[in-house]
Amino acid sequence: MRAEVLICGASFAGLAVARELAGSGADVLVIDRYEIGERQTSACACPTRWLEAMGVAGSIKQELPYMTFSTPYRTARYRLPWSWSSFDYRTLCAALWEQCTGVRFETAKVESLGEPTADGSLSVITDRGTLHSPLVVDALGWRRVLSSPHYQPPQAPLSRGLEVHPDSDHSGDALDVFVERGLARRGFGWRVPAGDEARIGVGSYDPSQHVKRETVELAERLGSEAVKYQGNWFPHRLRDATGDNVFFVGDSAGHCFPLSGEGIRTAFYFGIACGRELRAVVANESDRESALAAYGAFSASHGRAFRIALALQRIVPALPPRLLTGVLAVVGLQRFVDRAFGWYLNQAPPEFADSATRSGPGPSEPLGAPLAGAAR
Ligand SMILES: Cc1cc2nc3c(=O)[nH]c(=O)nc-3n(C[C@H](O)[C@H](O)[C@H](O)COP(=O)(O)OP(=O)(O)OC[C@H]3O[C@@H](n4cnc5c(N)ncnc54)[C@H](O)[C@@H]3O)c2cc1C
């Protein structure tokens, strides 16, 4: 019932943290209510370079070098300076887990944080008993289970998404985005080609708007059957990445980008940052307080990018559709596309996975000098 590091959540964020602790010699335990890779939590599209950097390129189902943006009036097609890839969730999780040498896994449903013990360890209450650890990570997703109170829709700053996964014929080389008020008054629709299937869905920034009818309509319009539903909430506001001595990573820390709803890359990115801090603690090069402070500051240093994205999330749906169509045509000039998408990728760049830095500077600053013991 004890572990040196307890990682709650075995999806993108939790496995990225665990991967950084592989071979550290520490007793690291990962828990999740499901087996690793059992429940897909997204449309599973991620920048290809991130999948390569994480050593999980074998999970790629289809590379998508283009994006299209459709309004009721026009479709703009952009060639990106980098590509997306859709991947198979189960294969990706297995490939991450394979890299987590020496880490243990158990299934358990996490209920809440209990009272700390006399030696300063935290207590995590699960349906299989109480676990104790001095270093606890909440990578449990949008609800932020280990905080009190949890985040609860529809009051919390959360978006909602629903998608279907019909069969597909390998056609399409673009991640398609549909910005139409008929689908979501404040939100967007998408189609992610993934080899023999497509992931078609609708997301609403307004958590009180249901999106089932709209998802079915979009699938039918694209000539696909509305089958194999999958839906979830996702945060659109950055939260504190630490609290009550817990490290929060991924959706639990609001690391999903507003506007795009992209949260896999950032779960990897902040998961790596958190894992490096924890690794320094278990190597006796740092302590919990310093690690919490450094990781919290690293996450907060990205606040500006998250605020810009949140402002755009508010502005874009308010634009009259004809004006939006004009804007999309102008920003479709290749040099704008390269700059805008280059900036966007740089907010959580794939090089971070290879660098050996502990979490220090934000994305626009040069990466600091490697710290011994923090490297993988
Ligand atoms: C419909 C939809 C499509 C999306 N598509 C994309 C996309 O294509 N690309 C992209 O980048 N982002 C996408 N997102 C956002 C993305 O899914 C999230 O940002 C991402 O999954 C966050 O990763 P995470 O590891 O923090 O959390 P999650 O992936 O949500 O993982 C949380 C883990 O914790 C476990 N868990 C939760 N509660 C408990 C509990 N009480 N006890 C034990 N275990 C628990 C879960 O089983 C899960 O394994 C999409 C979101 C939605 C809703």
Automatic annotation (TrEMBL):
- Looking at the record, the residues that make up the FAD-binding domain are 3-59
- Give the molecular function GO annotations: FAD binding
User: Which residue ranges are recorded for the region named Disordered?
Assistant: 354-376
Gene3D superfamilies given for it?
Answer: FAD/NAD(P)-binding domain (3.50.50.60)
Q: Which is an annotated Pfam family here?
A: FAD_binding_3
Question: InterPro entries, from UniProt?
Answer: FAD-bd, FAD/NAD-bd_sf, Geranylgeranyl_reductase
Q: Which residues form a coiled coil?
A: none
Specify the signal sequence span: none
- The name this protein goes by in its record: Unannotated protein
* Species per Swiss-Prot/TrEMBL record: freshwater metagenome
